[in-house]
Write a structure and sequence with these properties.
By secondary structure, the protein is an alpha+beta fold. It has 13 helices and 29 strands. The N and C termini lie far apart (80 Å).
């Protein structure tokens, strides 16, 4: 690390920002580690050189050791205790375990750290020569996100932090990171970029010789594209991004971050790093091919929805609701964006068979009911409240999960569900909410007893399948809708189609094995269809004319 860059870090420390762990301005009371990071990027050598300090929040108990997680791609890790004085002095740094990419280190002071006092540490390390999930350092472009790789020493059970970061990069390179940019044109001209993160976040950055294009959205906020090559059509791309962002703002409330950056990452190393698209606070990382083709509303709807769900609001760790408050909710936002921007017919096709050209994170070739049924057919189905931390759990969230959230929205009412989501997104910004707490918020906000919905859609596997029989007698159609156990309760539209193009739709409530209906029809009926717009996730029904 150059002496110059270390002096920048010390300058920040001297103004007192590390004296005490501060609370995020948008989330008072949520004490998290506070970092000062001085980061030198050496692209040609695939290398990071980092010096830093961290202040850990006080604990109610004494601590005889501290645990840190750091990627195995980083080495030469050293730590010194600066405060409190009782813990300073001789310490041991012990490599405890290495699981997958993560190395767990134990910092053991000569005397236990006292209760009730913050701990201030100084550290340094380097490395980055190897590709890791969402992590690559190279001359084509560099990127790192702590969502997947611990590129800075992450303390204990904390996965979020506040930070001040200063990057030193070769001239003509640019850096984009989460947080507020605080460096000026003169500093950036010489390759020095600084950011301040005040809301608890997963630290993420990208650096390259970027071409930068900017537009303003309807609220006057900036939407920028950081490009690795010139793209004449990028202005239209940014306009469509603004449309998607505006639609999601209607659904989820004001964006947690005013401005948005769409950041291109180099295609070949990105694929090796498992990156097709990724969201972080105020930015999304995308591969060049996603910028070369037509604008994909579903893809950008998903990644932009993560600004609220999975980035700003996180699900609490635990066995219930895994993937539902991040991936499934982002997928729900994707569907809502498609419906509001491109219309209900495209949204219906999305629900049934997927959105054209949309491949999410390499897991789901088409997020749709059709994709869910393929997973179910492989006997890999799971209740949505108990998804497992594997690729099938992720698939189920991205296929069935978002369709059930869409049905929940229709069940309580679109406007009611919007109000609930906006309230949760605002109150839990920078914080965590459990799956059961979320369901309680929905029930309380709707004023309805939703136990039946939760039990049949979240606590058990499968979707309904209906068989329909019907006959016409004069101006009436007599019919019955049957379903095998376990029976699903649902309100479904029943469509009568006439031989000369006439049609009639009425809503029928299903609750048991068989539901009988009588519908008026002043025309010769040729077909009866249950749920013609595919609003309720289900297997394709069997439909037969004949005696019900």
């Amino acid at each position: 690390m150059t002496r110059y860059l270390w002096s920048i870090l010390l300058g920040w420390v001297c103004v007192g920002v590390c004296a005490e762990p501060h609370q995020a301005a948008d989330n008072p009371g949520n004490a998290v580690p506070q970092y000062q990071l001085a980061i030198k990027i050496v692209p040609a050598a695939h290398r990071l050189e980092i010096n830093g300090e961290v202040v850990l929040p006080p604990s109610s108990a004494t601590r005889s050791s501290l645990e840190f997680h750091l990627s195995s791609a980083l080495h030469d890790f050293e730590v010194a205790v600066l405060a409190p004085p009782a813990g300073a002095g001789a310490t041991r740094l012990v490599k405890e375990t290495t699981i997958d990419d993560v190395v767990t280190w134990s910092l053991q002071p000569s005397k236990p750290f006292p209760a009730g006092e913050p701990i201030r540490l100084q550290f340094s390390y380097s490395g980055g020569e190897e590709i890791r999930p969402l992590f690559y350092i190279g001359k084509e472009g560099s990127f790192a996100s702590s969502f997947e790789t611990a590129w800075y020493p992450m303390a204990g059970d904390y996965d979020r932090c506040t930070a001040k970061m200063v990057f030193l990069v070769p001239r003509k390179h640019s850096v984009i990171a989460n947080g507020r940019r605080v460096s000026g044109p003169q500093e950036e001209e010489r390759g020095e970029f600084s950011f301040e993160v005040i809301q608890p976040s997963h630290l993420t950055f990208a650096a390259a010789r970027y071409r930068i294009e900017r537009r303003k959205d309807a609220q006057g906020n900036t939407i920028a594209a950081y490009l690795l090559k010139r793209r004449p059509g990028i202005g239209e791309y940014l306009e469509k991004c603004a449309q998607v962002k505006a639609a999601l703002t209607q659904e989820f409330g004001p964006s947690p971050w005013r401005d948005l950056a769409v950041v291109e990452t180099p295609a070949k190393p990105s694929r090796k790093a498992g990156l097709l698209g990724a969201a972080a606070e105020g930015l999304i990382l995308v591969l060049g091919p996603f910028l070369d083709g037509d604008f994909n509303t579903a893809f950008y709807g998903h990644e932009l929805s993560h600004q609220w769900w999975g980035v700003s609001v996180n699900g609490k760790p635990g066995p219930r609701g895994l993937f539902m408050l991040d991936e499934a909710m982002a997928q729900y936002g994707s569907l809502r964006a498609v419906e509001m921007v491109e219309g209900p017919d495209v949204a219906e096709s999305y629900r049934r068979t997927g959105y054209p050209g949309y491949v999410h994170a390499g897991y789901v070739p088409d997020a749709s009911a059709q994709a869910y049924l393929k997973t179910e057919a492989r006997s890999m189905d799971q209740p949505l409240s108990a998804l497992q931390p594997d690729s099938y759990g992720r698939q189920l969230a991205d296929t069935k999960g978002f369709l059930v959230l869409d049905l929940l929205s229709r069940t309580v009412g679109r406007e009611v569900f919007r109000r609930i989501l906006q309230d949760v997104a605002s109150r839990y910004a920078g914080n965590e909410i459990s799956w059961d707490e979320f369901l309680e918020e929905v029930q309380k906000g709707s004023g309805a007893n939703l136990t039946w919905f939760y039990q049949q859609w979240f606590e058990r596997e499968g979707v309904p399948q209906w068989g329909v029989t019907w006959r016409q007698a004069g101006n009436l159609v007599f019919g019955a809708i049957r379903q095998p156990p376990p029976y699903f309760r649902a309100e479904v539209d029943v469509l009568l189609e006439g031989e000369d193009g006439q049609n009639w739709v009425e809503t029928v409530e299903l609750q048991a094995e068989s539901t009988v209906f009588v519908l008026p029809a002043g025309f010769k009926v040729r077909a009866v269809t249950v749920d013609p717009r595919f609003l309720v996730p289900h297997r394709p029904p069997s439909v037969q004319p004949g005696r019900p």
